[in-house]
Recover the amino acids of this structure.
């Protein structure tokens, strides 16, 4: 376990809201389920900047190739809402998310996270039998060093590079977390 992984686990364990979220997701018992992306990234950046931004979404991912319907994702969101109300739940089956950017079908939640747009967002955490697990296909260095750059998939071809660039312009993360280093294509 890396020092950054230890730090991330400590940050998560010390946030009762995120722990409640992880407990609710674990209760659903979904296949290969994780809480990913912005919730985790933003929490780390908040800690590093000594600020507290509101939770704007809770990305729950899982992998189930037997039912890739949008309706099943909505039913899981409703179950999470019943367990932990008034949260911005967003549940996505990674078995269908490859279609968003015309990638080959993903084989797991790990594969889905590896295809996220930028490296510090390509992270996920889950609670399994009271133990926190971290998934970070590209490591946690960029996240903790406040560096934003595209994952390898979004460095290939001008169309995917344009998606990354547009996303950085729209997100304006460096207005909230002042010393982020947002990199263009490497």
């Amino acid at each position: 376990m890396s020092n950054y992984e230890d730090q991330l686990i400590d940050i998560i364990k010390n946030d009762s809201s995120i722990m409640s979220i992880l407990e609710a997701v674990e209760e659903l018992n979904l296949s290969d389920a994780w809480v990913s992306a912005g919730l985790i990234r933003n929490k780390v950046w908040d800690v590093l900047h000594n600020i507290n931004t509101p939770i704007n979404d809770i990305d729950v991912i899982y992998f189930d190739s037997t039912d890739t319907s949008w309706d099943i994702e909505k039913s899981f969101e409703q179950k999470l809402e019943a367990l932990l109300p008034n949260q911005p739940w967003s549940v996505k089956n990674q078995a269908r998310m490859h279609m968003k950017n015309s990638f080959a079908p993903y084989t797991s939640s790990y594969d889905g996270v590896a295809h996220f747009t930028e490296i510090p967002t390509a992270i996920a955490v889950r609670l399994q039998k009271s133990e926190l697990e971290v998934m970070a296909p590209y490591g946690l260095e960029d996240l903790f060093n406040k560096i934003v750059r595209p994952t390898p998939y979004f460095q290939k071809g001008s169309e995917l590079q344009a998606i990354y660039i547009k996303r950085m312009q729209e997100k304006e993360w460096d207005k909230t977390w002042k010393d982020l280093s947002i990199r263009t294509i490497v």
